[in-house]
């Protein structure tokens, strides 16, 4: 039974990827279907009009901003230093909400390893190391991307701007590719013969905080960075798509290392999203799970047994049928102890 479910999952992922390869614009199909249905129903017609008007506005705004960027900067500057500045802004910006939570006791009930807090020295060391790695590894990679990208048909031209509807299928497909690539490279980096040379650096943080995400050995930054570029290189043709993708990818990796599992996090609504609770366990134990984004690779390849056992313990020994999605918003040990104490009092 379990094997059959796993096979079904593998098939679903393969089909999703195949759709990407065939460049099937799922959104276009959906909107045309909705438009056809819209002729039969006022509600659908209003919905379609609204979706198309939002799309027009977003596309118009992207075109305006991009034409200004093209007027002001040389393509090499856009692909190199400007993309670098954009990355810094999004990466450190994504950390701000989590950093703010550290300052308020109210949010501590959602901290996954509640008793552990990084010292100021730890955070400073991380910032300095990150800046060095960003300048000496990531920036050259971005410069290199400028020369490699044309071979993949990549463009910066205004006429080649993508439609915002493309992002609706591209971003999920990029996340699936990134996740699968990351899983295997990360698992390899944990091999006992390799671990101490490269990945040990990233695991200096047993209770991670947002920006610990990119705190890693340069070799790791380089190889895992390739995974981030794979999706856009194969399924996109424009720098704007890369920027949009980078935005979501950075939010995701900073969230993974945030150390918080807040119940009102919008990512809780995404099926199979691993989130902080998934990756924090890996930093705490050095065992699986190894995935960056979703929970299905660890589930299919059997590297999440300890994680699942731990989560099942937190839930009174029960594992829900809906795994892997069910563990989002799981209670931490401290919160659970408090809940038990309150329940006892009420009894
Ligand atoms: Zn690891
Ligand atoms: Zn990590």
TrEMBL record:
Coiled-coil annotated residue ranges, if any: none
Signal sequence, start to end: 1-26
UniProt keyword annotation of Heme present: no
Subcellular location: Membrane
InterPro entries: Fatty_acid_hydroxylase, Sterol_Desaturase_Related
GO BP, one annotated term: lipid biosynthetic process
Gene Ontology CC: membrane
Keywords: Membrane, Signal, Transmembrane, Transmembrane helix
Superkingdom in the source lineage: Eukaryota
Fatty acid hydroxylase domain residues: 172-303
Molecular function terms, GO-annotated: iron ion binding; oxidoreductase activity
Residue stretches spanning the membrane: 76-101, 143-161, 167-185, 222-248
Family, per entry: Belongs to the sterol desaturase family.
Name of the protein: Fatty acid hydroxylase
The species this protein was found in: Ostreococcus tauri
Taxonomic placement: Eukaryota, Viridiplantae, Chlorophyta, Mamiellophyceae, Mamiellales
């Amino acid at each position: 039974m379990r094997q059959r479910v796993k096979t079904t999952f593998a098939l679903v992922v393969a089909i999703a990827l195949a759709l990407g390869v065939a460049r099937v614009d799922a959104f276009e199909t959906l909107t045309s279907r909705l438009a056809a249905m819209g002729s039969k129903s006022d509600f659908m017609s209003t919905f379609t009009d609204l979706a198309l008007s939002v799309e027009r506005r977003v596309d118009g705004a992207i075109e305006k901003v991009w034409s200004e960027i093209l007027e002001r900067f040389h393509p090499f500057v856009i692909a190199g230093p400007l993309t670098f500045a954009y990355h810094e802004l999004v990466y450190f910006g994504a950390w701000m909400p989590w950093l703010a939570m550290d300052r308020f006791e109210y949010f501590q009930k959602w901290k996954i390893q509640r008793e552990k807090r990084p010292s100021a020295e730890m955070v400073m060391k991380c910032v300095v190391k990150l800046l060095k790695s960003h300048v000496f590894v990531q920036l050259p990679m971005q410069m290199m991307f400028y020369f490699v990208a044309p071979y993949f048909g990549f463009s910066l031209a205004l006429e080649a701007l993508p439609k915002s509807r493309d992002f609706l299928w591209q971003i999920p497909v990029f996340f699936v590719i990134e996740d699968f690539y990351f899983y295997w490279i990360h698992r390899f980096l944990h091999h006992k013969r390799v671990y101490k040379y490269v990945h040990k650096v990233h695991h200096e943080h047993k209770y991670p905080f947002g920006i610990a995400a990119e705190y890693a050995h340069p070799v790791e930054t380089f190889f895992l960075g390739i995974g981030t570029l794979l999706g856009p290189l194969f399924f996109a043709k424009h720098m704007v798509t890369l920027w949009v993708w980078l935005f979501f990818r950075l939010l995701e990796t900073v969230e993974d290392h945030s150390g918080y599992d807040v119940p009102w996090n919008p990512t809780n609504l995404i099926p199979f999203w691993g989130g902080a609770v998934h990756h924090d366990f890996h930093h705490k134990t050095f065992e699986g799970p190894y995935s960056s984004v979703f929970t299905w690779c660890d589930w299919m390849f059997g590297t999440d047994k300890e994680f699942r056992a731990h989560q099942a313990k937190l839930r009174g020994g029960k594992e829900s049928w809906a795994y892997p999605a069910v563990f989002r918003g799981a209670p931490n040990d401290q919160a659970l102890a408090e809940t038990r104490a309150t329940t006892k009092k009420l009894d």
